[in-house]
Design brief:
The structure is a single chain. The protein is built from three helices and 13 strands, in the order βββββββββββββααα. By secondary structure, the protein is of the alpha/beta class. The chain has two domains: 115 residues, UDP N-Acetylglucosamine Acyltransferase, domain 1, CATH 2.160.10.10; 46 residues, no CATH class. The strands form two sheets. Strands 1, 3, 5, 6, 8, 9 and 11 form a seven-stranded parallel β-sheet that branches. Helix 1 packs parallel to helix 3. It is elongated and about 65 Å long.
Length: 166
């Protein structure tokens, strides 16, 4: 079930519950994922929604934000209001309770950083490049070595600069 969401280009969700969430481009979201579900009030008379359904008593919670190029494994739960940075990977069956930085690989309950996908220099270049906002990687597939991150970044930068001059 997906509602109150925006899902940008080329992202997909296989199955689950996604609510009150903004999902960036090129995200891969696996089966049985829960993102941004409502929290129940813990300091009210009851935790049951009878007290706030169809009333103004309950204010909407913060939007959950999933960056671009994020991979979310099966059975993941992401608590409402969390922000997942660009390029992050969330391991299967993890519970994300706090923000995840760009290009971090996290797993566990609660999810913790295992490592980063790339070194700090490459991460900074990728965040500056924002490859997901252009079509260079589609139009020039044969000119980009996707399997070598340093080369791919360099080749996309050259293509962007070539277009600026033209």
């Amino acid at each position: 079930m997906i509602y109150d969401c925006t899902v940008d280009d080329h992202s997909y969700i296989i199955s689950g519950l996604v609510k009150n969430t903004k999902i960036g481009k090129y995200c891969s979201i696996a089966t049985n994922v829960t993102i941004g579900a409502d929290r129940h009030p813990t300091d009210w008379l009851s935790t049951h929604p009878f007290q706030y359904n169809d009333t103004d008593n309950f204010k909407p919670l913060k939007i959950t934000t999933i960056g671009n190029d994020v991979w979310i494994g099966a059975n993941v739960v992401i608590i409402t209001g969390v922000s997942i940075g660009d390029g992050a990977i969330i391991g299967a069956s993890s519970v994300v309770t706090r923000d995840i930085p760009p290009y971090a690989i996290v797993a566990g309950i609660p999810a913790k950083i295992i490592r980063y996908r790339f070194n700090e220099n490459i991460i900074n270049k990728l965040l500056k490049l924002k490859w997901w906002d252009s079509e260079y990687h589609f139009h020039h597939k044969n000119e980009i070595d996707f399997s070598n991150i340093e080369k791919a970044v360099e080749q996309i930068e050259m293509l962007k600069n070539k277009d600026k001059v033209a």
